[in-house]
Each structure stands twice: as structure tokens, then as C-alpha cells.
Amino acid sequence: MPNIAIREVNSMLEMNYKEKISQVIKLFKFYDLSTAQVVQTTATTERQARKNLGKQSLIFIARIRLHPIVERSRNWGGYIHD
Questions:
Q1: Strand order, beta sheet including 37-43
Q2: Judging by DSSP bridges, how do beta strands 58-65 and 37-43 pair with one another?
Q3: What is the pLDDT of residues 26-44, one digit of tens each?
Q4: Which three-class secondary structure state does DSSP give residue 20?
């Protein structure tokens, strides 16, 4: 019986991890044919990025995954410790 519970938990964690990966915000770059310029926006999917820009004449150029910046110093009580 415990093996079944462990498998269920593992499966739930794996699904949750896959959902988080798909929700990572990315920077999308497009070439706008109407203005002959590169435009960019952030979104989770290319479809959402196109919707954010609201233009029909876009050619996809790049998708860049954005990573949060983590500071290496530890901050506690207003003091910085290395």
C-alpha cells in the first residue's frame, strides 16, 4: 500500500514541476513588417506574446527564457553577511 501512495505523490510532484516550467516568463522578439522594426514583449507563450502586441504583421525572431537574479550575499536583520 505505501508504494501506491509514494507513486501518487511522485506523479503529482512531476505534474506540478512540468506546469511550473511551462509558466516561465520568456522574452519574445518579432519583426514587425508594418513598421520595419523589431518589437519585443514578455509572456509565457508565443500566442500570448502576439496577443500582447496586438499586430498581425509579425515574424517570429527569438524566444529567450528569463531567469530570476539571486543575490549571493545573505541578508539578515538589515546586515549583510558573506
A1: 37-43, 26-32, 58-65
A2: unpaired
A3: 999 999 999 999 999 999 9
A4: helix
